[in-house]
Design goal:
With 260 residues, the chain is an alpha+beta fold. It is built from eight helices and five strands. α4 crosses α6.
Length: 260
């Protein structure tokens, strides 16, 4: 009985093999037909989708991946936006706007570092009290300069465009200034040099306009003044206080003539 089962299984297997062998050409033809039909359907689908795929490709090319802002870029842009928000808040009295702007500027600029750089070698011969007085006068003067500049150009906007690290603690944040009356509305390339302050936070130590460093320009200005006044830092501090007062007076007159 067991041998009969083996014989029967062998007959069945032989029959299946024989059947496949006899019909192998038919099975191959069916397989080729299915493959051709599948390829045709794929090509048809690609032709139908190609306009949409092309449109997607165009969108991706025209809209590259969004640039991820670095911390220095965010620091600069946020403070720029805060500055404009303060100066454009006409609900605030002029003096309060000025006080808020000055406080914001001093929080974002390393005033002492910039002031010492602007003094150059003359800082070495000044006393600590003279340095402190100069830093205060310098900070007040710079705040007035920037406030008057931004306040007198209400159409200006500054947008950060990128950054380049000179060192882990030294980053140049680039931007575009648009709407400046002095540039007849043409774009102006600007850059902020950002370094870490004594507390470890980001702070601006220079502003470059079309490649010209404001810190270097101030240093040249102060150096010329000090050469003419015996290197007296206290005299320069008094001069900066006078310049700041002059700017405030001019701003007050301008507000009276053209109230916002």
């Amino acid at each position: 009985m067991h041998n009969d089962h083996k014989i029967y299984s062998g007959i069945v297997l032989f029959g299946l093999v024989s059947t496949f062998a006899e019909n192998r050409h038919r099975w191959a033809a069916i397989a080729r037909s299915l493959a051709a039909d599948f390829a045709y359907r794929c090509m048809s689908a690609m032709r139908a989708l190609s306009p949409y795929l092309f449109a997607v490709a165009v969108v991706l090319l025209q809209n590259p991946a969004v640039h991820a802002a670095t911390p220095p870029e965010t620091f600069v842009q946020q403070n720029i936006d805060k500055s404009y928000a303060i100066l454009n808040d006409t609900a605030l009295p002029a003096k309060e706007r000025g006080d808020q702007f000055r406080a914001l500027l001093l929080s974002m600029v390393d005033a002492k570092r910039v002031a010492l750089f602007a003094l150059g070698p003359y800082a070495h011969s000044a006393s600590n009290s003279q340095i402190d007085n100069f830093v205060g006068a310098f900070s007040d003067y710079v705040a007035e300069v920037f406030q008057r500049d931004l306040d007198s150009n209400p159409g200006e906007t500054i947008t950060v465009t990128g950054s380049a690290a000179r060192a882990p603690d030294d980053v140049i944040v680039t931007g575009k200034l648009l709407g400046s009356a002095r540039a007849n509305g043409a774009p102006v390339n600007i850059a902020f040099r950002v370094r870490k302050n004594a507390g470890g936070g980001d702070a601006i130590v220079d502003l470059q306009v079309e490649g010209v460093s404001m810190a270097l320009a101030q240093r040249d200005d102060f150096s010329g003044y000090l050469q003419q006044h015996g290197g007296n830092v206290a005299t320069l501090a008094a001069e900066l206080e006078n310049r700041a007062r002059h700017l405030r007076t001019r701003a007050s007159v301008a507000r009276m003539e053209n109230p916002r």
